[in-house]
Design goal:
With 148 residues, this protein is mostly beta strands. The chain is built from 1 helix and 9 strands. It comes from Gigaspora rosea. This is MD-2-related lipid-recognition domain-containing protein.
Length: 148
């Protein structure tokens, strides 16, 4: 009976340690403004950690100091890889572009959904995502860097 209790305790401990270690692998996508000079729109990404070769959904919202004009302003999502010791990122693929199909006056909330952004199959473990609202001007930029 003592052996059974010891084995049960050991098994329960191993399961707990194994389950707890997976929590450290999860990285939440927290986007921050690209620079202090530009506002950073709020970005929600699903899945929260991109999967190479699959699609992702981006919801981008915020308030712009300028009019966002339908058919002229666009959402640009750029995935770039970071090489060891490199500060600048190298694009992995061409950016995803989506035109705004609705206009938003200055200083009013805007929102745009990119329902199917294809993630390249060669996505590295160290990458940056830039989410930009632009036309001739850049209205806002948010970014997130994933480093494994």
């Amino acid at each position: 009976m003592k052996n059974f209790a010891f084995v049960f305790f050991l098994f329960a401990t191993l399961l707990t340690v194994n389950a707890a270690s997976h929590q450290f692998d999860k990285r939440a996508a927290t986007f921050t403004p690209c620079t202090d000079a530009l506002p950073g729109p709020t970005v929600t990404m699903t899945p929260d950690l991109l999967v190479a070769g699959e699609s992702a959904n981006f919801i981008v919202s915020g308030t712009s100091k300028y009019d966002i004009r339908a058919g002229l302003a666009d959402l640009r999502i750029q995935l770039s890889k970071l090489l060891s010791g490199q500060i600048a990122a190298t694009p992995i693929v061409n950016p995803y572009y989506q035109l705004f199909n609705e206009s938003f006056p200055a200083n009013t909330p805007f929102s745009i959904v990119a329902p199917k952004v294809d993630i390249p199959s060669n996505l590295t473990y160290n990458y940056t995502i830039e989410v930009i609202i632009e036309d001739e001007l850049t209205y806002g930029c948010s970014m997130n860097t994933f480093i494994n």
